[in-house]
Design a protein that fits this description.
cell membrane, Growth Hormone, Chain: A, 479 residues, MFS
């Protein structure tokens, strides 16, 4: 994803290079990084037992990935413009693959967390330039719409598919293989990227590099994500100063962008009601869905007694439904009813699914207590995500499309971090309070998860209300 103010550098594949083969390479690289964001979820109990993580420390297996990933997206996108997007994409694949091997070979907590952070760096390098490359490869509107539909389906279904693969690999081969499996995939994707993707020279590191702005926004974003995801393990007296420092860096960055001759980020982008509103809605929606993936997997294992493989199989309908709907129906549904209406309908389904999970019993059954809300969440996300993406991108001017894409990816990470930071300690706190009062372990654990699900349903309701209030007037122009 490009973060330049101007239009993306056009990749011009030779006649022997297939644009759709290039799309397959971009999707493969994206799928690997997207899967990694969720594949660890179902393996968390096994990692905890093997390496001796505490409850609070275990969250850092996820947080260590999210902090550099979220903080480096804008910087990596800008560097891609300067050194060439193909180079940045390939370098990101190499870093991510090497870090995955380190994760798989880790025998201690410190090495695993450090390797996960390096994975986040590689993931940001890869993800930041993909959409800019895709848009340049498909300049014709109809083909571009098809390409974006395929790319969106891979990204959306990949997050849910990771839960299934994590369970299967952990159960059949051990948790180390959720990382080691990336070695053959990464090598194949890197080899294909070098051979298939057309080179682009980039602008050069000596031209138009807003280095101070890049440093400020990277520090601000990383501090923000760190303050959110680490809040559960710190006192408020520590979290507040971190948030204040992040705010100071954001302020300094804003002043820099207002005065820089070639700013990294054009501030007028935020003047678009669609761009700002869609990103705000996304933070709440992704917080809900990411919290569901994490808490839902724990509910199946610690309350219903599922093993890793069964947990993965239980989640499998979600990526199947998401992929099928996004590839087969989403574009036509948006064309018929408008992105705004489809977004609202999807958010209604997500809210309903989370509300049903808020009633999940201690001795729940999959067919009646888990599958129905899972399908509601999958259908709702398949409807809402493409519609929300379309609204966010429609609100950006042509010269700011790359930056709007980078911003949209960044708020996804912030939303996921927020969901994990709020819902996980909320569930743990409720469970601990009940255990202190003498409750049995399973009922206390189940009640903690039910509380998290109920809170998540209100977060989804907030996303619905915000979308209805903020996006209504402007979205009609793009319905």
């Amino acid at each position: 994803m490009s973060t330049t103010a101007g239009p993306p550098t056009v990749l011009s594949p030779s006649p022997t290079r297939s644009r759709w083969a290039s799309l397959a390479v971009l999707c493969a690289g994206t799928l690997m990084t997207v899967l990694d964001g969720s594949i660890v979820t179902v393996a968390m109990p096994a990692v905890q037992n093997d390496l001796g993580f505490s409850g609070a420390g275990l969250a850092w297996v996820v947080n260590a990935y999210l902090i550099p990933f979220g903080g480096l997206l804008l910087l990596a996108g800008r560097l891609g413009d300067l050194v060439g997007r193909k180079r940045m994409f390939a370098a990101g694949l190499a870093v991510f693959t090497a870090a995955s091997v380190l994760c798989g070979l880790a025998t201690g907590r410190g090495l695993l967390v450090a390797a996960r952070a390096l994975q986040g760096v590689g993931g940001a390098m890869t993800s930041a330039v993909v959409l800019g490359m895709l848009v340049a490869l498909f300049p014709e509107p109809r083909e571009r719409a098809r390409a974006i539909a395929v790319f969106s389906a891979v990204g959306a279904a990949g997050g849910a598919l990771g839960t299934f693969l994590g369970g299967a690999l952990t159960d059949l081969a051990g948790w180390h293989w959720i990382f080691l499996i990336n070695l053959p995939i990464g090598v194949a994707a890197l080899t294909a990227a070098v051979r298939v993707l057309a080179p682009d020279p980039g602008e050069g590191l000596g031209r138009n590099a807003d280095c101070p702005g890049a440093a400020l926004i990277t520090g601000a974003l990383m501090l923000t994500v760190y303050a959110i995801v680490g809040s559960a393990g710190r006192a408020a007296g520590t979290t507040a100063p971190l948030g204040g420092l992040a705010a100071a860096l954001f302020t300094a960055f804003t002043l820099r962008q207002a005065r820089a001759p070639r700013p990294l980020l054009r501030l007028r982008l935020f003047g678009s009601r669609l761009v700002s509103g869609a990103n705000a809605v996304q933070v709440l929606m992704v917080a809900t869905m990411y919290g569901f993936q994490f808490i839902g997997a724990l509910y199946l294992q610690r309350v219903l007694g599922y093993d890793e493989l069964t947990t993965g199989l239980a989640f499998l309908p979600a990526p199947l439904v998401i992929g099928a709907l996004m590839l087969g129906l989403s574009a036509r549904t948006v064309a018929r009813f408008g992105a705004y209406r489809v977004l609202l309908g999807g958010l209604v389904l997500i809210t309903a699914g989370m509300a049903l999970l808020g009633r999940a019993p201690d001795d729940g059954r999959y067919a009646t207590d888990v599958l129905p809300p899972l399908l509601l969440l999958a259908v709702g996300f398949a409807a809402a995500m493409p519609a929300l993406t379309g609204l966010a991108m429609a609100g950006a001017r042509e010269e700011g499309a790359g930056l709007a894409s980078g911003l949209f990816n960044t708020t996804q990470v912030v939303g996921g971090s927020l969901g994990l930071a709020v819902l996980s300690p909320l569930a743990a706190g409720r469970t601990d309070a009940l255990l202190d009062d003498g409750a049995a372990l399973v009922p206390a654990t189940a009640e903690g998860y039910r509380l998290a699900f109920r809170v998540a349903s209100f977060v989804a309701l907030g996303a619905l209300a915000l979308a209805a209030a903020v996006l209504r007037g402007r979205a009609a122009e793009h319905a």
